[in-house]
Amino acid sequence: MYLTIKETAEYLALSEETIKKLIAQKKIRAFFEGEGYLINKEQFNTYFKQMEKYKEMVEEYLREPIPEDRDIKDED
Q1: Which residues on neighbouring strands pair with residue 23, listed in sequence order?
Q2: CA-CA distance, 21 to 10, in Å (whole number)?
Q3: How far apart, in whole angstroms, are the C-alpha atoms of residue 48 and residue 30?
Q4: 20 to 30 A from 69, CA-CA: which of 1, 37, 50, 76?
Q5: What's the pLDDT tens digit per position in 8-35?
Q6: What is the CATH number of domain 2-63?
């Protein structure tokens, strides 16, 4: 499925200007088709999967209990 710049901006919750900059920087693959750019929606699937994995890792880290502080006495 192909999206326009406007649709891509809505899909990614970014501004249209940001999408245009990312296309110019070749961070988003797009091709010019007569009236404007078309962007393949499938290229963002990997990004969203990685973000979900990252969120799970952060949540797991935050759920980990803080170890109790040992009161270690120096015995000389």
Answers
A1: none
A2: 15
A3: 18
A4: 76
A5: 999 999 999 999 999 999 999 999 988 8
A6: 1.10.10
